[in-house]
Amino acid sequence: GGVSLEFETTMPTKFMVGTEQGAVILGNRKGKLPAEKIVASFTGHHGPVYAVQRNPFYTKNFLTIGDWTARIWSEDIRDSSIIWTKYHMCNLTDGCWSPIRPTVFFTSKMDGTVDAWDLSFKHSEATLSVKVCDEPLYSLRIQDNGQFLACGSQEGTTTLLEFSPSFYAYLKQERTVANAMFERETKREKILESRQREMRAKERAKSEQEKVVDHAEDEEDTIEYKIANAEKMFFETIEQEKDRFEL
Q1: 90, 111 Cβ separation under 8 angstroms
Q2: What is the C-alpha to C-alpha distance for residues 97 and 103, in angstroms, rounded to an integer?
Q3: From the centroid of its chain, how far is CA 247?
Q4: What three-state secondary structure class fits 140?
Q5: Percent of all residues in the chain with a pLDDT value above 70, rounded to a whole number
Q6: Mean pLDDT score of the chain, rounded to an integer?
Q7: Who has the most CB within 10 Å: 128, 140, 183, 238?
Q8: Bridge-partner residues for 84, per DSSP?
Q9: What is the rounded CA–CA span in Å between residue 132 and residue 167?
Q10: What is the pTM assigned to this prediction?
Q11: What does the DSSP assignment read for 20-66?
Q12: CB-based contact 66:22 (threshold 8 Å)
């Protein structure tokens, strides 16, 4: 079943659903046939996808939250995400993009921590981690100008966080840097995806060849094959003897 839903108003015919099985389904509201209604499926999480959100600046790139990771995808790549966080010690529960900076997003975790990520700075670790409470956080909502972030906890408490200007002040050339980063990572995954397809094709061809060889060897072991081979050799010998006597 579906766990999370993404609907971008600038793309009125498309929507995305995060499922319990760890996949994200891209749908088309105007599709008439089943193949038209489900455009694509992206699989990468090991459990329910709790959040799906498109990047507000580059809508073909989207963020997903599930299991112990946050992942960023491109609609051009189906088999793998293009950027992902490390595996955390506890589950992630929600996430959202900054509405001001295209490389900044936020995540919440079961241990009550909020992480702020700035991809223009580093991918491997969060730029800032804040311990909000000792209970699990389940929801995040960012203010339109990116300065305040509301966090909802398991016990029904809402905490409002205020970030420094470095997280919500737009940086010069940041959109150019973000676009170059997403394009670079997408190209890298395309190359890896193509390489994996080639390797799988070679493995299939090798497997088929081995089956043909095994089948030929099995035929050679049968009584019918041995009888036919003996008959062939017998008649060849007779023909050779006839030729010898004629000479």
Answers
A1: yes
A2: 8
A3: 78
A4: strand
A5: 91
A6: 89
A7: 140
A8: 71
A9: 18
A10: 0.79
A11: TTSEEEEEETT--SHHHHEEEEEE--SS-EEEEEE-SS-TTEEEEEE
A12: yes
